[in-house]
Amino acid sequence: MDGVLELILCDIGNTTFHLLINENEKRYLLNEKLPAFNEKVYYISVNDKGQDSLKSTHNDIVNLENYIDFETSYKGMGIDRKVACYGIIDAIVVDAGSAITVDIMSNSEHKGGFILPGFKKIENLYTQISSKLDFDFNTKVNLDKIPLCTQDAISYAILQSIIEPIKNIREKQQIIFTGGDGEFLSKYFENSIYKKDLIFENMKRIINANNCIA
Amino acid sequence: MDGVLELILCDIGNTTFHLLINENEKRYLLNEKLPAFNEKVYYISVNDKGQDSLKSTHNDIVNLENYIDFETSYKGMGIDRKVACYGIIDAIVVDAGSAITVDIMSNSEHKGGFILPGFKKIENLYTQISSKLDFDFNTKVNLDKIPLCTQDAISYAILQSIIEPIKNIREKQQIIFTGGDGEFLSKYFENSIYKKDLIFENMKRIINANNCIA
C-alpha cells in the first residue's frame, strides 16, 4: 500500500453506501450516484443492488470478502458481521444498524450469533399495528420501573427486547458496539465500548494483512 | 340476564371482530360485514373504525368499557388489557396478538406493563429489512445454543426478544397467556397457563357484576 491517506473504503449496507474517503466519512443512499474516484475502492457489500451500482460506476474496486480470513461454523454469515468480528479475541460484537447483529467471539473463535430488527424498524412497527401506539421513543424511560403510560410501555419494550437477549448470552466479556444506534445502546451495558469505525478499522486490518492486494 | 346461552360478545381488536355467539367463536375482518343479531351485543373495542362499523349495523349494543370496575395508575391503558387483567389477583397477564401486552397484577392491583410488537409483525419485519433475512420461523430453534445459521439467528432473536423481557420482570407469580400466539409462547415458561378465552370469560364476569345492564 502507498499509504493510508489514499484509502477509499466502502461499506455497502441495506440502506446506504458508507464511505471512508481519505479518513472522511460520508454516506450516500443506495439509489444515489457515487462520486468518481481516481483511487482504488476497497469494499464489502451485503446488498447486491448496491454492489452492482458501485461496479457500474467504478472499475478499480476490490471486494474484501475475497481476502478476509475468518472461519466460522455459522452458515450464511454476512460479510459485514465477519468484518465486525475480525481480529476480536473475546467479546460480544453488536452492530446496531437497520438490523442489530449480535455475535460472540471467544478465544478468537466465532461461537455464533443472532439478528434482531433495528431500533428504528421496531419503533416504526408500532404505528403499523395501531395509530394508538404512535408515540415518540422516550430516551429517558426508566428500565427499573414497570411502565405506567403507553409511551413508556413502548419505549421500555423496545429497549428491553434488545437489551435482555444480549444480557442473557453474556458471561463476563466486554461488549463492543458499532453502528448508528450502537452508542446509545452501549450506555445500557457495563464494560462496553462504542467503536464508531469498527468496520472501517477492520477493513484496513484486512487490507494490511493482504498487502499484496494494494 | 336471561341466561348465558343468548350472550353475544364482541372483542374488537386491531385486525378482527372476535365474536362469541352463543358459546361459538367466530372471527370477521374489520372490513367485513357482521351478520345481523337479534340479541344484545356486549362489546369492547380498541379500534374506532371497528366500533363505528358495529354501531352502524347493530342498535342493541352495550360497550362494557362503561361498566368495568378496574383501577390503575397507568395512563391510557387499552380496554382489552383492562379486561384481560380483570379479577386477576397475582399473575403476569400476556395477551399475544398483533401486539403483545404484558401486565403485572399483584394483590389485585395493576402495577403497570409494557407492549411488544406481535410475533408475526416482528417476523415480517425482517423481510422488510433485507431479502437476505427472509426465512420461515423455526419453531424448534434451541434457545440454549447460540445460533449457527441465519434462520436460527432470526428465530432465536424473535423468541428471546419476547421471552427475556417477560422473564426479567417476573418474580415467582404465574403467567397467564391469551391471544393467538399465547399457547405457543406459554410453552417457554414454567408455571404458566394458556387461557384461550380469557377476554370472553372476563367480559362475562363484568356482565355478571353489573347484572342491571342485561
UniProtKB/TrEMBL annotation, chains A, B:
Compartments, as annotated in UniProt: Cytoplasm
Binding sites annotated in the UniProt record for substrate: Y74, G78, I79, D80, R81, T150
Reaction catalysis annotation: (R)-pantothenate + ATP = (R)-4'-phosphopantothenate + ADP + H(+)
Any one GO MF annotation of this record: metal ion binding
Residues of the active site: D80
EC number: 2.7.1.33
Cofactor descriptive note: A monovalent cation. Ammonium or potassium.
A biological-process GO annotation: coenzyme A biosynthetic process
Annotated TM spans: none
Pathway terms, separated by semicolons: Cofactor biosynthesis; coenzyme A biosynthesis; CoA from (R)-pantothenate: step 1/5
UniProt keyword list: ATP-binding, Coenzyme A biosynthesis, Cytoplasm, Kinase, Metal-binding, Nucleotide-binding, Potassium, Transferase
Residue sites binding K(+) per the record: D95
Organism superkingdom: Bacteria
Pfam families to which the protein is assigned, alphabetical: Pan_kinase
Cofactor(s) the record lists: NH4(+); K(+)
Main location: cytoplasm
InterPro entries recorded: ATPase_NBD (IPR043129), Type_III_PanK (IPR004619)
Enzyme class: transferase
Functional summary from the UniProt entry: Catalyzes the phosphorylation of pantothenate (Pan), the first step in CoA biosynthesis.
Family listed: Belongs to the type III pantothenate kinase family.
Family annotation (HAMAP family): Pantothen_kinase_3
Oligomeric and partner information: Homodimer.
Name of the protein described by the UniProt record: Type III pantothenate kinase
Gene: coaX
